[in-house]
Amino acid sequence: MSIADNLLKYKKELEGTGAKLVAVSKFHDAAEVMEAYQAGQRVFGENLVQELVEKQAQLPDDIEWHLIGHLQTNKVKYIAPFISLIESVDSLKLLIEINKQASKNKRVIDCLLQVYIADEDTKFGLGYDEVIEILRSEEFPTLKNIRIVGLMGIATNTQSQKQIRDEFQELKVLFDGIKVTYFRKDDYFKELSMGMSADYKLAIDEGSTMVRIGSNIFGKRVIKHYKAE
Known about the structure:
Elements: H1 3-14, E1 20-24, H2 30-38, E2 43-46, H3 49-58, E3 64-67, H4 76-79, E4 85-89, H5 92-104, E5 109-115, H6 128-136, E6 146-153, H7 161-182, E7 191-196, H8 200-205, E8 210-213, H9 215-218
Parallel strand pairs: 1-2, 1-8, 2-3, 3-4, 4-5, 5-6, 6-7, 7-8
């Protein structure tokens, strides 16, 4: 099946679920992204800053770019002029830098706090207590050029659907608690990004508002080496 066919299959599946499709285009070239764009997709996720910057320069301005990979503070300045959503905020230090670069670009940048929910050492993210620490910190109310619009989490890479479901449920409970405690009056705090190709159906069942699908849309990736990363 073509990229367009794959994309339309997912769009049809997601109809009526309330979940947005983020097409993960990392390691796929601008022409492949353009094929998805021409099939109606406007939201794309990238992991690497250099790759994202290169594609953004080549592709239409109405694309909504999400940074979904680990973000180093010294790379924020390169995406601050155009990024729509940074899904992978995993420290107060990073949040402060995003705010600084957003201010320089006279923008407010939407962010998700990435929460560590997996039983794996290789994944990034904040502990539940660290999320609360950020929201209670003295610095947080001073950050006028960022907006926390929700949470993101990546479940364990396991065959156990019960474990995955439990992890998603726990993140939804945290999301609901934070919404009530810190963002009760803020309509913009509404995004819960969880679920990828292998587990997106479980994620939607547990309240995900965004699913990140990559290889099932674009096919296998040819991994490039980005020296600047």
